[in-house]
Amino acid sequence: MPQVKVIAEPGAHDFTVECVMNGPRERVYRAHVDPEAIPHWWGPSFLTTTVERLEPRKGGIWRFVQRDAQGNEYAFNGVYHECIPSERIIRTWEFEGMPGHVLLETVTFEDTPDGKTLLRSQSVFQSVADRDGMLATGATEAGKDMYERLEEYVGQAR
């Protein structure tokens, strides 16, 4: 089970999540840009995720829709600003249920000395209130579930 560390300084516009994944960074990166991989790990386990669009390149668009057991839908979208294979992804990120609250996410992938991957995700919000609102929804707990699922998927993927 990966150790997940959330860094959220009071009064800041951002928070960072760090997680060491048991798997090579190329595989961890690939799980982020492969539309067939995303449904296996993205989001909390009680939701199913459908990839409607995934264009991991500068200017490319992404859109994922999650559904709960009652059929409620939660959609997310954004635009890629940078995709450097096995190194970094920079993209915008917006929950369609709260339009106009766009964040900028930077995800980096680094080798660790023991052959694992340090995954670091920094989310920068337009306001402290937006950042605090995201944290209040339980996003960090859902993120821990998601990273556990990602590590399991990376361990199975070849």
**Whole-number mean pLDDT:** 93
Strand order of the largest sheet: 1-2-8-7-6-5-4-3
Query: What's the name of the CATH homologous superfamily of one domain?
Result: START domain
In N-to-C order, the SSE pattern is EEHHEEEEEEHH
Distance between the termini: 19 Å
Short description:
The protein is an alpha+beta fold and 158 residues long. It contains 4 helices and 8 strands; from the N terminus they run ββααββββββαα.
Could you characterize the architecture of this molecule?
The protein is globular. The chain has a domain at 47-106: Alpha-D-Glucose-1,6-Bisphosphate, Chain A, domain 4 (2-Layer Sandwich). The model has no long low-confidence stretch (mean pLDDT 93). It has an eight-stranded antiparallel sheet with strand order 1-2-8-7-6-5-4-3. The chain has helices at residues 25-33, 38-41, 128-136, 139-156, and strands spanning 4-7, 14-21, 48-54, 61-67, 73-84, 88-95, 103-111, 117-124. It is built from four helices and eight strands; from the N terminus they run E-E-H-H-E-E-E-E-E-E-H-H. Strand 5 and strand 6 (88-95) form a beta hairpin. The relative contact order is 0.24.
